[in-house]
Amino acid sequence: MSSQARGNRTTSRLLMSPAVISLLLWMLVPLGMTIYFSLIYYNLMNPFLEGWAGLSNYEFFISNPAFGDAVWNTLLLLGSTVVITVGLGLAIALLINDPFPGRGLVRILLISPFFVMPTVNALLWKHMMMNPIYGFLAQVWTFFGAEPVDWLTDLPLFSVIIMVSWQWLPFACLIFITSLQSMDREQLEAARMDGANFLQQFRYLYVPHLARSISVVIMIEVIFLLSIFAEIYTTTAGGPGTESTNFAFLIFTEALLNFDVGVASAGALFAIILANIVAIFLIRMIGKNLEN
Amino acid sequence: MSYLDLQGVEKYYDDFYAIKGIDLAIEKGEFIVFVGPSGCGKSTLLRMIAGLEDINGGQLMLDGRDITHAEPAHRDLAMVFQSYALYPHMTVEENMSFALKLAKVSPAEIKDKVEKAAEKLNLTQYLKRTPKELSGGQRQRVAIGRAIVRSPKVFLFDEPLSNLDAALRGQTRVEIAHLHRELGATTIYVTHDQVEAMTLADRVVVLQGGIIEQVGTPLELYDTPANKFVAQFIGMPQMNILPSQLFRSQHEGAVETGVRPEHMALVAHGEGELNGDVEMVESLGNETLVHINVNGNVQQQIIVRLYERPNLRAGDMVGVDADASRLHFFAADGSALRGEG
Question: CA A85, CA A247: separation in Å to the nearest integer?
Answer without folding.
Answer: 21
